[in-house]
Write a structure and sequence with these properties.
Strand order of the largest sheet: 1-2-3-4
Helix content: 25-40%
Number of helices: 2
Radius of gyration: 16 Å
Strand content: 35-45%
Length: about 100
């Protein structure tokens, strides 16, 4: 269980970094409101997506640990996003899932 919690924490951190990276701009004068408007424009036609992903963890000794997962994202009414991440590999993680509702 502890291992699964760590992996889910890492996955959430990865997702947050991914969203933040998409919002960076060359214009340092943009404020928080401008960034929110830009993000809203970027997502105006978003309905949902399904992605298969591979997560490779590397410990301090350089040992790699591979996880495979399916990411499903959907936008509901009033821009309320829902996501589900389901691990498919390895066997001890298979079926573990994280469901979020905005």
């Amino acid at each position: 269980m502890r291992k699964k919690r760590l992996l889910l924490t890492l996955l959430l951190g990865f997702a947050a970094c991914n969203v933040q990276a998409e919002l960076r701009t060359a214009d340092p004068a943009l404020n928080g409101y401008d960034i929110e408007v830009k993000q809203d424009q970027m997502q105006s036609n978003y309905v949902g997506e399904v992605r298969q992903m591979t997560l490779t963890l590397i410990n301090a000794q350089g040992k790699e640990s591979v996880r495979k997962l399916v990411f499903e994202g959907f936008e509901g009414l009033s821009r309320r996003d829902k996501t589900k991440v389901t691990f498919t590999y390895p066997a001890d993680m298979k079926g573990a899932a994280l469901l979020t509702h905005e």
